[in-house]
């Protein structure tokens, strides 16, 4: 069991930790991320490559769960940084969806940020604790809300297909306890 810290092997934490990299061309609207180029650990089958955009609570494992999603947005152009016009023209949104929808109780499980200039990445951390029944599933949805389409059009003209966002993503889901 490589990748699982020794203390987690001893106490038998239930859940999964996944990593992926993807590229998306704007505009992006509630796009579910494929969760695992790499399974760091996946106890009891929470992640399956047949459903690559979700983690699912296996039968018999209903409980209280902690979900932590990290999305790092970057510009896909080599060595490029976020520029003021991108910061002023759009926002990045990362949110968690339960069973295919963003419910009211998930309002805290959302990050809404402009790109940070002049950096190469914009990092968003989303934490959520929830009761999840058997076969409930969680997806990570990303959006790029564009306020000034002319800025995006200008980037399309200047860079064409080379203009995209590169997203690095980590997702950890851990069972904290059983449901009462």
Summary tags:
single chain, 180 residues, mainly beta, Jelly Rolls, five-stranded antiparallel sheet, 3 helices, 10 strands, 47% strand, elongated
Describe the structure in your own words.
The chain is mostly beta strands. It has a single domain (6-12, 20-175), classed as Jelly Rolls, CATH 2.60.120.40. Helices cover 13% and strands 47% of the residues. The strands form two sheets. Strands 3-1-10-5-8 form a five-stranded antiparallel β-sheet, with no helix packed on it. The longest helix is centred in the C-terminal third of the chain and has 11 residues, at 149-159.
Query: Span between N and C termini?
Result: 31 Å
* Name of the CATH class: Mainly Beta
**What value does the average pLDDT take?**
79
Strand order of the largest sheet: 3-1-10-5-8
Low-confidence stretches: none
Query: SS-based structural class?
Result: mainly beta
Number of helices: 3
- The portion of residues assigned to helices is 10-25%
What is the chain-wise order of helices and strands?
HEEEEEHEEEEHE
Principal-axis shape equals elongated
What's the count of strands?
10
In short:
The protein is mostly beta strands and 180 residues long. The chain has three helices and ten strands; from the N terminus they run αβββββαββββαβ.
Secondary structure topology:
Layout: H1 6-11, E1 15-24, E2 28-32, E3 38-42, E4 54-56, E5 63-75, H2 84-89, E6 90-98, E7 110-113, E8 121-132, E9 137-146, H3 149-159, E10 165-178
Antiparallel strand pairs: 1-3, 1-10, 2-9, 4-9, 5-8, 5-10, 6-7, 6-9
């Amino acid at each position: 069991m490589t990748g699982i810290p020794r203390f987690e092997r001893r106490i038998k934490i239930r859940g999964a930790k996944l990593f992926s990299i993807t590229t998306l061309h704007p505009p992006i609207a509630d796009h579910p991320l494929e969760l695992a180029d790499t399974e760091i650990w996946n106890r009891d089958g929470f992640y399956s490559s047949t459903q690559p955009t979700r983690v699912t609570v296996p039968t018999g494992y209903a409980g209280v769960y902690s979900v932590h999603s990290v999305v790092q947005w970057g510009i896909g152009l080599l060595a490029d940084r976020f520029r003021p016009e991108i910061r002023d023209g759009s926002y990045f949104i990362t949110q968690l969806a339960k069973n295919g929808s963003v419910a009211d109780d998930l309002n805290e499980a959302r990050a809404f940020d402009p790109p940070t200039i002049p950096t190469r990445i914009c990092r968003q951390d989303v934490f959520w604790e929830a009761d999840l029944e058997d076969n409930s599933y969680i997806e990570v949805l990303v959006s790029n809300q564009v306020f000034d389409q002319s800025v995006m059009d200008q980037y399309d003209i200047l860079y064409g297909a080379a203009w995209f966002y590169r997203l690095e993503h980590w997702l950890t889901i851990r069972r904290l306890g059983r449901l009462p």
